[in-house]
Each structure stands twice: as structure tokens, then as C-alpha cells.
Amino acid sequence: MSDGKPKLLIAKGSFATMGGAERDLLRVIPYLKEHFELTVTTLVSVPELEKVCDANGIALLTPAAPWKIPAGLFAAIFDKVRKSARKEWKSCDGLEKALDEHQYIYLVSGDGYLGFIQNLPPNKRIHLQLHEPHRGLHEDSLHRTITGGFKRPWWMTSLILRRSRKNDQKIIRDFFYTENTSISGNSNFSAKRAHEVYDIDPSVLWPCVDFNEFSPTDDGSKNPIKDQFSEDYVVNVGTASWAKGIWEVISMLKGSGLSLAHIGGGDAKTLEKIKQHANRNSVPIWIAPRIPSNELAAIMRYARAVVSMAHKEPFGLTPIEAFAVGTPAIFVNEGGFQDTITDGICGRLIEREDVEEWHRALQEAADPKKRANWAESGRNRIETMGLKPIDLANRIMQLLLN
Q1: How far apart are CA 33 and CA 38, in angstroms?
Q2: Are residues 72 and 99 in the same domain?
Q3: Structural domain of residue 335, as residue ranges?
């Protein structure tokens, strides 16, 4: 039954990866309920989403069976992901009625979102949170092997993706210039990339972190690597790939005396190469797939530092999650990391190739006074940037209602 609040439909194609975009959306949904009567729709649900919706009495609309995302060369050539998603959204029970009844729509980018845009009715107030232009279509980092080489000649890949790339650009441009629509990037870097790729000027809508989820206080949650390492360790988060920079992190750690906890897993072949690379560089490594956020917070809390050398990261939740638990954030001086980290104040931003400086920063991170200062400044940074879920919910409300 309606409680008099405006109706908002939240849409995301898939939650399967449970990466930063998915975690961010799960955090803000309960706070959006304060402003709107909510319905959530997705083509691929996960237990974490279902738990949030059940706990808050929010309707969740999904297809009868999870969407199977087309993959492979044929799918890339003929833009099968978009076409398949468009068809799948139409089959989602109750979605057509929800699109008709809800005044506002908040759409989050990722697999399947272009197909959703093509099914939208006219005269709705719609905001698209475009975390980044499609990386597989508009830059090369996802087309590289774990060691950095191209999986196939880049000219060939670019040619194969030509049709999908043009469709992507047209759909986003048309959407941006449609009445009652708006787009935001999740950092100044991603907004700049959207301008370069689509010739549009989106706003910036920063993600959020929840202190209840990432607390500086030990809540008794299990730290699954507590007995794995005798040495201090650093944490790196993200599915193993060249784009996430895990290969370079291992190379950088050589001679540091630190172990590595890699959270996010990856395919078996890639993980085996990572283990061999770590062994050659005498870097003890522990690899875990997706784990609950309370365990991730525990792993971060007792680490020397949280580190990343990701390529072209649009925002990156891990720096602000590190701020929240009070662990030093040491990141490459690129991409969205530059929005949140102030070098030497709440962590470190370091040039990719400066291994000596990386090691110096890791030594700084062992100093209790330095850790305490960075932790306090990091939590202040969350406050001043407005990176709590309630802040994000208020900004989304303003974007939609204004």
C-alpha cells in the first residue's frame, strides 16, 4: 500500500559480481526508502539483494530465471548483450506495470542497462548513474591478459566491437538529450571519461561507505587469514585481471617482506599464474573469492595497508572502506582514487613505476602515529565529502525531484 511518498523504481541489470557498484547500491537502498516508495528490478539477483529487500519490505522484480549474459566473439560482433537484455527486461514479470506506475527511475550502469534504456516509456524522470563508459568497448584494459599483453591484436578487437561501440554511444547520447533525464559519473575521472566517449557533461555522484559495515572497532567477525601469515600483510580487492593491477602489486611487493591477501578471486587459469608470479617474487599470497563484508572489514582492519594499482579505476570503494576501518590506503595516483585520497594526509597516492616510494609508504604505514593520523583524516574525509549512505540518498533524491 502506498504511504504517500513518490514512487521510485531502482534498476540494475545484474548483481552477480557483487563489486563496488553493487555494494554501493545495497547500502543506499534502505536510506532511499525514507524518501520514496521503492521497487527494485534486476535480471540477475543475489542473496544479499534479496535480504535487503525483504528486510525493508521492498518489492523485487526479476525474470523467472536469471539472465544468462551472452559471451564470446559472436556475441561481441553482433551486440548480443544489449539485444538479449532488452528482450529479458520485457519478460520480467510486473516490470511493465511498475514502469507505468512509478514516477521516478534510478538506473545503475553495468551489464544489461542499455537494454533497459531502450524499454523506457516516455515522460518519466530518470537518472542514470554511469559508473564508467563501457570499458570493454571504449578502452583496452579488459582486453589484456593478466600480464598486460593483448589477448588478440588490438586492431582486430576494435574492429569486432565497432558495431556495439557505435550503438552504445548513440543510446547514451540520445538518453542524455532526452527531456527529464540526467546522468552522473561516480567520480571526476569517470565524468571526464564520459565526456571523452559520449561528448556529454554529466554531474558527479560519489558512492558511499557505511560505518556500521566497515567499523574501526573489532566486532568479533572472523578474520580468515589471521593464521595464514606470520608476516604483516597488505590487502588488494578486485577480481584478478590486468585492469585491477594485481600483477603489478605482486611485482611491487618483492623485497618488502609483506604478504598479500587478494580478495575477489578470478578464473582458475589466471589465479594459477598469479600464484606462480607471487612465488617467483617471494611474496606469500592468500586468495579468496567474494566474502561477506564483515570478514572483508576484519581482514582490512588488521592489515598493514590496503593497496591498489588498478588501471583507470572510475572511483574505487576500497580507499573509503580503508578510511572507515582505520587502515592506511596506499593507491596508484590515477583515476578516481584522486577524488578521495589526499596524498600524505589520509593515505598515499604514488606513481605506478616508483617502487621505492611504494616501499617507503608501506614502511610509513607501520608507524602507529602515522596510522592514527591517516585514520582520523580519512574518516574526516568521508564526512566532508558526504560519503555516507544517507548523504548519497539525499543527493539522489535531489537529482530526481529537482
Answers
A1: 6
A2: yes
A3: 233-385
